[in-house]
């Protein structure tokens, strides 16, 4: 019986059809998806902090509105993704507990600090750009609710990327101090953005099985190459450079050659020792714990309202 | 959407690609922007600043909740309310600058005025949390009072002799009614919910009430602008009625007026603020002011 179900599952995945919540699926597939989607949801929620850092100080009212709307979108993305994990039997509250207890991870990029307003533009352009490279293929991922959430998220991310790039374009047309601020932000975010694709393929433990299950569609190195290739002309148009002396067009490969990020730094940040890891988790923990009485009150009120309805009926 | 090349999929898309299309029109398109001849321009500028600053400063306070709310849904809702208020502020400050005629735009007015030139009521500026200044209950009580008062004010302002103020009010009223509804629902949940939430709501009402009386005090500018401005002293019974209904459902008692002395007869509308205001303005303005001549 399980063999039949397993065969049907394999066939559905291999024929590029979608697995839906009621379908049978291997436990490992379910666990991998919950882990991956939760990690993505946590990234959206933790990602609200580095950008939220500048809302109160945004230098024009238009930029303040754009930034606030963007951070609000990230909360929305987190919400859809937690909802997608719930179709697999997970619970949002439990996943949040895992996040604040350090048992589940989020994208390491958010463990870097946002030091100037140019970081708001560079995060949009490079960080959201790298996220899009990672996420667009997930619109075809084998699990239906995840794939559909990703379509909407990618549309909004692409809007954020354009807004970030537009901010940088505007700043580059401003004063020298602003141009310097943009270059400084690019210098700080370039390497971490390359790390967003994960370790080199030969060191990536999850790639092979996830590719076979069509949860993952491209390898880390393929996506990293695509990102570098698409970022180079954008940097040239903007008038900034990337801090990599090895970066140049290779006509034989039809791609850019580029240097390797500092993988030691990457593993340090992934391991919890980045510049902002403890700050980010503490912030999330505080919001969650400070809000506990509110959630309890809402639940108590709803229960009272239900009881009085039942009493009437 | 092409999935083969991420970047191609993002550019040159038809409008249908975007959730809300791309053809946004200006919110007050088609509204007559001439200043009516019977209106004193200086007073109208001051009045637009009063209303614009109310919205701007409360928006700044509410935005501080983003990433700190009790639930993700509430991060979204409070950010949404802050965005609505920011949108109102931009229209009102733009109107102030336009009537003044000295080339000041919304940003010059938001970022280059000193604390004493801001005209918002104290209720908008006090720190109600997140953080040591308050908590979610205080934020909700402040929002409930503010939005109930603004709904009453904007519903009358729709008939203003200034066509721009009338249009801003018509647009803003729908938003404010939603803010009031959101705050009222939370007030009922928290007032009724648990012992702790009830206790916090009682403390929140105590914290906020000394700032309520100012809302109904007519400033000389408002008194002179009959037909353009709304007389705040007319709003009290309507606001009290709304608050009574919410407080009753929440199991709370609405305090009577707590008249708080002004400073030599002056308060927010005159540019005399609470101690919290200087910090708020400093944080909001510091980047804009530290790079003169920058473009954003």
From TrEMBL, chain A:
GO terms for molecular function: phenylacetyl-CoA 1,2-epoxidase activity. It comes from the Bacteria. One of its GO terms (cellular component) is cytosol. It holds the Pfam family PaaA_PaaC. Keywords: Oxidoreductase. Gene3D superfamilies: 1.20.1260.10. This is 1,2-phenylacetyl-CoA epoxidase subunit A. It comes from Umezawaea endophytica. The gene is paaA.
From TrEMBL, chain B:
This is Phenylacetate-CoA oxygenase subunit PaaC. GO terms for cellular component: cytosol. GO terms for biological process: phenylacetate catabolic process. Keywords: Oxidoreductase. It comes from the Bacteria. Its EC number is 1.14.13.149. Coiled coil: none annotated. One of its GO terms (molecular function) is phenylacetyl-CoA 1,2-epoxidase activity.
């Amino acid at each position: 019986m399980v063999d039949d179900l397993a065969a049907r599952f394999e066939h559905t995945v291999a024929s590029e059809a979608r697995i839906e919540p009621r379908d049978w699926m291997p436990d490992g597939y379910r666990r991998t998806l919950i882990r991956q989607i939760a990690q993505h949801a946590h990234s959206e929620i933790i990602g609200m902090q580095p950008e939220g850092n500048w809302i109160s100080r945004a230098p024009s009212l238009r930029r303040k509105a754009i930034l606030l709307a963007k951070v609000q979108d990230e909360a929305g993305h987190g919400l859809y993704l937690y909802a997608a994990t719930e179709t697999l039997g997970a619970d949002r509250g439990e996943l949040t507990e895992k996040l604040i207890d350090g048992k589940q991870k989020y994208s390491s990029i958010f463990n870097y600090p946002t030091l100037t307003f140019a970081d708001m533009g560079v995060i949009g352009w490079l960080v959201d750009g790298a996220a899009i490279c990672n996420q667009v293929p997930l619109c075809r991922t084998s699990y239906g609710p995840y794939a559909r959430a990703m379509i909407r998220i990618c549309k909004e991310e692409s809007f954020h990327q354009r807004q970030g790039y537009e901010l940088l374009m505007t700043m580059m047309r401003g004063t020298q101090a602003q141009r310097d601020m943009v270059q400084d932000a690019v210098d700080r975010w370039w390497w971490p953005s390359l790390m967003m694709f994960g370790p080199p393929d030969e060191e990536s433990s999850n790639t092979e099985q996830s590719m076979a299950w069509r949860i993952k569609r491209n390898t880390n190195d393929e996506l990293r190459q695509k990102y570098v290739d698409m970022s180079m002309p954008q940097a040239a148009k903007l008038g900034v450079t990337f801090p990599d002396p090895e970066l140049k067009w290779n006509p034989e490969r039809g791609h850019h050659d580029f240097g390797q990020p500092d993988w030691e730094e990457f593993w340090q940040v992934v391991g919890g020792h980045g510049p902002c890891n403890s700050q980010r988790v503490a912030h999330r923990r505080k919001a969650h714990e400070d809000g506990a009485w509110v959630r309890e009150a809402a639940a108590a009120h709803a229960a009272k309202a239900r009881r009085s309805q039942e009493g009437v009926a | 959407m092409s999935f083969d090349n991420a970047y191609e999929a993002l550019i040159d898309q038809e409008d249908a690609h975007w959730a809300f299309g791309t053809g946004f029109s200006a919110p007050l398109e088609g509204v007559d922007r001439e200043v009516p001849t019977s209106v004193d321009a200086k007073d109208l500028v001051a009045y637009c600043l009063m209303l614009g600053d109310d919205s701007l400063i409360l928006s700044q306070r509410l935005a501080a909740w983003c990433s700190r709310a009790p639930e993700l849904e509430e991060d979204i809702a409070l950010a949404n309310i802050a965005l609505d208020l920011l949108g109102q502020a931009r229209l009102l400050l733009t109107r102030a600058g336009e009537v003044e005629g000295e080339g000041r735009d919304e940003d010059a007015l938001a970022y280059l005025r000193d604390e004493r030139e801001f005209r918002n009521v104290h209720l908008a500026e006090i720190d109600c949390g997140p953080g040591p200044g308050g908590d979610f209950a205080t934020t909700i009580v402040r929002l409930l009072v503010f939005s109930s008062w603004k709904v009453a004010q904007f519903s009358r302002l729709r008939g203003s002799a200034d066509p721009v103020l009338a249009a801003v009010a018509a647009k803003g009223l729908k938003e404010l009614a939603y803010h009031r509804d959101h705050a009222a629902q939370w007030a009922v949940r928290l007032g009724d919910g648990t012992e702790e939430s009830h206790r916090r709501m009682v403390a929140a009402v105590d914290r906020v009430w000394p700032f309520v009386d100012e809302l109904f005090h007519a400033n000389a500018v408002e008194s002179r602008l009959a037909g353009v401005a709304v007389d705040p002293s007319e709003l009290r019974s309507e606001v009290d009625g709304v608050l009574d209904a919410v407080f009753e459902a929440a199991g709370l008692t609405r305090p009577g007026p707590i008249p708080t002395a002004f400073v030599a007869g002056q308060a927010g509308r005159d540019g005399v603020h609470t101690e919290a205001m200087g910090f708020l303005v400093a944080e909001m303005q510091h980047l804009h002011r530290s790079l003169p001549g920058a473009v954003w």
